[in-house]
Amino acid sequence: MEFFCYHRDRPGSLALRNELLEEHWSYMDRYAAEMIARGPTLTSDGDAPTGSVHIVDLPDAAAARAFAFGEPGYQAGVYRDVLLRRWRNTLGRTMWDFPGGPTGGNRYLVLGLGTGQAADLAVPSKQDELIAYGPLLSDDGTTWLGTAALVRAPDPSTARAVLTPDQYADIEVHSWQFGGRS
Fold first, then answer.
1. Is this model's pTM higher than 0.85 or not?
2. Burial of 52 from C-beta contacts in 10 A (0-12 / 13-18 / 19+)
């Protein structure tokens, strides 16, 4: 089962986040085989992290909760909240398989928070700029709750356009970059 996990930083927690960076990476190293995508969201100028995205393939919801809430930054109070949802890997690949590679161009996390009828279930036709893409689902996987995408785009507006605007209660766009050890 695939899960989307987004830890959002608590204001004023940058020093603690930096202090725990090696512990965070070591923790994530334990999940290397299960990792589909990972990396920090950043301020619009790219100078500071604002959160941490992890998309993982784990046995069940209990394992996903243990992953999300056992993370050292979460345990120490770095994050203000965690969005954890079932997810479906509609591209069928990891971020490391993205033909565009880990550098070059702007990268974004696009989160469409759903309302009503499911939308954007099919992969968009312009998928060569998609790093990861799939629906956010309820714990049992039956109810559509939104869509999450990692995309390379020239700007936030172009990234946002990967989703159908009038099908969501809200669409968030966050600067994002490939994560992991340098």
1. yes
2. buried
